[in-house]
Amino acid sequence: MSQDARARKDWDTYFMDIAYMASTRCRCHRRHVGAVLVQGKKLLGTAYNGAPSGVPDCSEAGCMIAEEYELAIVDGQEQMVKKQRCVRTIHAEQNLLLFTDRIDREGASVYVTDQPCWTCANMLANSGVQEVVYHRSYPKDADKVTKLMQQVGITFRCLETYEPPEVAVSEITN
């Protein structure tokens, strides 16, 4: 088959594929997340979740689980909901913001494999980006993150029909 005969990937698929490939660098057993920064059609940075440089990661020292409780509405009733998070790793979105320049982020898009958590959403809200595109939902924080993105005017899109590259798919354990 000639190169012209193959379907060319659209930009959303192309950049999300790169985010998934970045996620393969992660060594946390619970979740592999990748993120990329894009200005127009120019790739400006990639990142993944992981322990700080020089610190043992989850594959070496195990996950560092923190438990939190949050008041939530479940089936119309207020309930205390327990959340567990690995706090050994710096999230992909945080690493992306740490290793890119503010000037490059102004008006840019972030493609991230997973919907940002509350902390990452807050950081993205102040980062200068105008769009966040994700694939997998993160139900623990979904409603409040979506509301925050609306409040700050950041376009927030889920690529529901996207299929990640097979080599980059990992099981998620929560």
From TrEMBL:
Q: Which cofactor does it need?
A: Zn(2+)
Extract the GO molecular function terms from the UniProt entry. dCMP deaminase activity
Q: InterPro entries from the entry?
A: APOBEC/CMP_deaminase_Zn-bd (IPR016192), CMP_dCMP_dom (IPR002125), Cytidine_deaminase-like (IPR016193), dCMP_deaminase (IPR016473), dCMP_deaminase-rel (IPR015517), Deoxycytidylate_deaminase_dom (IPR035105)
As given in the record, the signal peptide range reads: none
Start and end residues of each CMP/dCMP-type deaminase domain: 10-156
In Pfam terms, one family for this protein is: dCMP_cyt_deam_1
Question: What does the similarity note say?
Answer: Belongs to the cytidine and deoxycytidylate deaminase family.
Its recorded name reads dCMP deaminase
Species source reads Paenibacillus turicensis
Q: What is the lineage of its organism?
A: Bacteria, Bacillati, Bacillota, Bacilli, Bacillales
